[in-house]
């Protein structure tokens, strides 16, 4: 078992999200279980010995046909852990420093066609009661701001600036940014809050979006809502909150938005993460060209 103080390091110093920390904990537990199965104790700290065991474990994962993304994440967990031990003076050198994995092949993001999104949002699929307004607000916020699922769940009522038409978003590693919102979305938030406060008059919950029981939203709840409504307009296999983030970025780019502006709204650390959307729009351009050009 790895050291508990490593988890505190990830949470309070590195400011990793709870989701990432859970993934890293699970990955490290798997590695140390592998060590145990190979007859080694969890206290194996010799750099060369650990390096050899890590290589064998990664080969095992490849043989199990784990995805590139999964293997890279597990490798990242190991890198972070042994870097921490090295910083603490527990080991000399980092046993993963000489191990390199191939870059992940990036898939083009899935997104919903603009006409289909308009069909969903311009038609009364939601209803005007608390649940209906809440569901509509979930879809509108994800699509109009491109925020992540975790960011949506953690929006507090006080984070909405109605005068400036913006929302304070707390992103990865608790980094704050302000995201602009349209006046119609501001009106929807006001209407939702009125109905919410009437539905739960003794409410003490500080978060904006609530379940039907007046509690803070959770991941599976939002997944169910998004899948329900996207199923009304598309048969695409992926119908997740992240698809709406991709849809936001793609539609913004298609309408001429500056890539750097999209980067800031999405909360990306660097432009390379945002540039994948240029590939999506270029694929669309190629399709239009093939359909329209008389000499093709």
Q: Could you walk me through the main structural features you see in this protein, from its secondary elements to its overall organization?
A:
This protein is mainly alpha-helical. The protein contains 13 helices and three strands; from the N terminus they run H-H-H-H-H-H-H-E-E-E-H-H-H-H-H-H. Strands 1-2-3 form a three-stranded antiparallel beta sheet, with no helix packed on it. Strand 2 and strand 3 form a beta hairpin. Helix 6 (about 130-145) packs antiparallel against helix 8 (about 185-200). The radius of gyration is 23 Å and the shape is globular. The N and C termini lie far apart (about 60 Å).
What are the defining features of this structure?
three-stranded antiparallel sheet; globular; 13 helices; 4% strand; 296 residues; mainly alpha; 3 strands
